[in-house]
Amino acid sequence: MSSCAIVILNYNGEEMLKTFLPSVCMHSRYDVWVIDNASTDGSIDFLNANYPQIQQIKLEENFGYAGGYNAGLAEIQGQYDYYILLNSDVEVTSDWDLNLITWMKTHPDYAALQPKILSWKEKDTFDYAGAGGGFLDAYGYPYCRGRIWDTIEKDSGKYDDTIDVDWASGACMVVNASVFHQLSGFDPDFFAHMEEIDLCWRMRRSGWKIGYIGSVEVFHLGGATLDRASPKKMYLNIRNSLSMIYKNEASSRFFRIFVVKSLLEHLAAMSFVTQGKKEFSNAVLDAYRDFKVKKKTIEKFRPQLEGREEISRKGKVELVFWNWKVLGKKRFDQL
After folding, report:
1. In what residue span(s) does the Glycosyltransferase 2-like domain sit (predicted)?
2. What is the DSSP string of 91-102?
3. Most buried of the four, 28, 29, 133, 234, by CB within 10 Å?
4. CATH class of residue range 2-220
């Protein structure tokens, strides 16, 4: 069995591949794979002509991020100890993959790991997706060191450490291959967005740890699939967040969280109407409607502890939005 496969998911990403594959091929030690989600552009022809050394898995339809990775990784299951899941719009740096896998090999109680993720456009600034390590507040809202809601910090070196986090970013994350498959991978119903947070939550509930290593840097373009400010992304984030919390929290705890989230997000929907952004208001309402329909078929996650201890909620930030919007705490070190 080989140590690692670097696996890039592609859907109509020919231009991204042209821009970012050169750094991946230049700086990577391990096998590189592309899972193609039934692209209709010139992605496959470009790979065949320019990167015959990259192995391909061609899917028959677009399964999204979650389903695409699940289907593709199932085809190489058993061949690798680790997968590095890498967005097609990420530039990597020297020895990035070797350093990530070396760390994982020396820390066998970790199921996932992410590097420091900086912006490709402004390389002294953190990226929105993952930044300096991801956390969840007590109501399941994600935030990062280096990024709280839309406030993004410059990289001053203070997140060059190595710490435990709540979740690793799907833009660039190492996962233990056997743990990934034992937990059935990503939830395919998510399609895209929040699926890596859900997976990391299930990993932690099964007694595994999630790590962040700031000595390894990558640069993420972001927004290559959906712009951060798109109604579609808002819909997926809200719907999938509700599903994730429902799966991973006790029913009584979920009810309390649901009441708070529902109040905040329906107030946001009303605000969008007054701003003339009805499409965003509809995204919120559609997300709640579809979650309620889907809820009947969602199974509660039951931890696979195998002698490990389940995670504790102790020390969590209560509500990161309140800290950011009302109390004016814009940086992680202010929380």
Report:
1. 6-113
2. E--TTHHHHHHH
3. 133
4. alpha beta
Whose CA is closest to 259, among 242, 271, 274? 242
- Sign of the C-alpha dihedral computed for residues 288, 289, 291 and 295 taken in this order: positive
State how beta strands 55-58 and 31-36 pair.
parallel
pLDDT at 228: 59
Dump pLDDT digits (tens) for 218-260.
999 986 555 557 899 999 999 999 999 999 999 999 999 999 9
Q: Which residues of the chain have pLDDT under 70?
A: 1, 223-228, 306-307, 309-315
H-state helical runs in 55-154: 64-75, 96-105
**Where are the CATH 3.90.550.10 domain residues in the chain?**
2-220
Number of H-type helices and E-type strands within the chain: 10, 13
Nearest CA among 40, 22, 42, 41 for reference residue 32: 22
User: In whole angstroms, what is the distance from residue 304 CA to residue 323 CA?
Assistant: 34
Q: Tell me the Cα Rg of the chain.
A: 19
pTM higher than the cut 0.85: yes
Longest dimension (CA), the chain: 58
Question: pLDDT by residue (tens digit) across 142-162?
Answer: 999 999 998 999 999 999 999
DSSP string, 8-23: EEESS-HHHHHHHHHH
* CA 53 to mean position of chain CA atoms: 27
- Residue 18 is predicted with a pLDDT of 97
Tell me, what's the pLDDT at 192? 87
